[in-house]
Amino acid sequence: MDVHISLEGRSDLAAQVYRQLLDAILDGRLRSGERLAPTRELARRLEISRNTVALAYDRLVADGFLVGRAGAGTFVSAEPVRGRAAPTGVVLPRPFWRGVEPEPAVPGARYDFRAGVPDARLFPMDTWRRLVGRELRAGIATYGDPSGHGPLREAISRHIGISRSVLAGPDDVLVTNGAQQALDLVGRVLIEPGAVVAVEEPGYPPARLLFRSLGARVVGVPVDAEGIDVAAIPRSARIVYVTPSHQFPLGTPMSLARRAALLAWAERRRAVVIEDDYDSEFRFGARPLEPLQSLDRAGRVIYVGSFSKTLLPMLRIGFLVAPASLAPALRTAKRLCDWHSELPTQAALARFIDEGLLARHIRKATREYAARHVLIAEALAADDRLEPVPSAAGLHLCARLAPGVSVRPAPGVLAFESLEEYCGEEPAQRGLVLGYGVIGRDAIPEGLRLLRSRMSAGPETPAARF
Description:
It is built from 14 helices and 18 strands. With 466 residues, the protein is of the alpha/beta class. It folds into 3 domains: 13-76, Orthogonal Bundle (Arc Repressor Mutant, subunit A); 111-118 and 361-456, Aspartate Aminotransferase, domain 1, CATH 3.90.1150; 120-359, Aspartate Aminotransferase, domain 2 (3-Layer(aba) Sandwich). α5 (125-138) packs across α12 (343-354) and α7 (178-190) packs across α11. The protein starts with 12 loop residues before the first helix and ends in a 10-residue tail after the last strand. Residues 11-79 form the HTH gntR-type domain. It holds the Pfam family GntR. InterPro entries: Aminotransferase_I/II_large (IPR004839), HTH_trans_reg/aminotransferase (IPR051446), PyrdxlP-dep_Trfase (IPR015424), PyrdxlP-dep_Trfase_major (IPR015421), Tscrpt_reg_HTH_GntR (IPR000524), WH-like_DNA-bd_sf (IPR036388), WH_DNA-bd_sf (IPR036390).
């Protein structure tokens, strides 16, 4: 590996080479077993004597940091070298960031009911490898359009037009790195410091935190059986973030009457509605209602979607459809953020959609998720300690806990999420959020039996991830 070495002046050159190579080894930039450039080559690059480089190498060999192999070259010693940490420093982040803890890694569990994670075993990985390999061999070797790969934008506009009745052409689609970046771009373009953003309560915590990080004052608005309570939205709100197709985390769809009321409110208040349609492809029963975007006649809805739930989280491809008045600013924000999303993956996804593979995968996955949904829904309904929230779509179910019921943890064995985690207002609502994307159908009965055995009617305790 070529290591950057910068020489100052013409004195003590061997010592300068020695110190900079030593720093690279101690910092972990040069790892154990890596081959260094030959002395002649490094001397040529640095425009110094080969003997000078050889002297530095010899000293590192003598100190045990390098080892020479006859006929092979010079290598970093196989002895592990502990990397040095960056300076502690005195620079602090803004107050908001001092109070936000990194999302902890969730340990694996035998019975994994975590929400929002699709089953990787259902994904046609061999087909995906073929498509990605084809694009890599094609050799896309230039920067792309910040709005996204043209064929993918065309494919997305057709897909959401057919499957969700979203009104959008290719030029209306902006490809992002997951739905979270879509929300970030919208926030960058629309949120002024101190602006009020209304979110569902309970709701999606990463969206709430993101808007706060951009300087917004975030206000939770209650959700009932019909969706967000429009009458409770603050008059000063400039943005309303909702998940109308499958409310996250309760799972209920927003009624048509409530959708109409929200759009009328947004037009009166000159506000923007962000519609996050994160997993509505997986629908098991009721006919889907029209998205807010297709009902909107005033150009106040921004539609956000993602393939992370439909396919695999690791793909990190999302998109947004915004009114034409916002498109130039959002495209510029995307370019300033990361220029564009990764091109071979975009091109592969375009082929995946155009060849009918996405529709086939959704049909197959929906059948499997529907069977898991039924198993869990029937078990929740049969337990009088739980009050299931009606849901007919997505990758999770929610049930409220009866008063006084608590859940004992089972680390490493049982994993689920509590409704409290999704609440930003006090008092937090109590309940369980059970996903069925990770856990297989055959493991669900035993996992639910274990969950019921951990529930009691004792003192209330938080039912966090276990």
